[in-house]
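tmp note - Gamma-glutamylcyclotransferase family protein
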Amino acid sequence: MPCVFVFGTLKEGFPNFERNQGVRIPGVFSTTVSYPLLLVGERYSPWLLLDAGEGHPVLGQVFSVDDDALAEMDALERITEADGYRRVEMDVVNLDNGLTQRVWVYAKPAHSVKGADVRMTLQGDYLLEHAALYVSRRKV
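out:
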């Protein structure tokens, strides 16, 4: 089954976790490459920007997903919409055991930041204090 690395609202205990139907793989994971992690717009949406080598390694969780769970995440992340996230593959490392694996991640193309309302640049970790700022699309 495919695995998805989540760094924002889909993490366990975060605002969109109910939309995550995957099975969590134990450990804390980090991207093997640094990327910008931003809070964007009036909704304070977390964006991992596909600008490799910039920012910090991004921390998150990995979930094993079946086709239905992946489709649910794709819908939430609006991957078919022009302003949605893109599902791309990247390597992450399990910080508990040092093992690296290839996973899916939802990220924004680097050009997306042009003209975006960047509210905050994070140091690679989306925390509950950041999630407290998040506004669901359903509430906007």
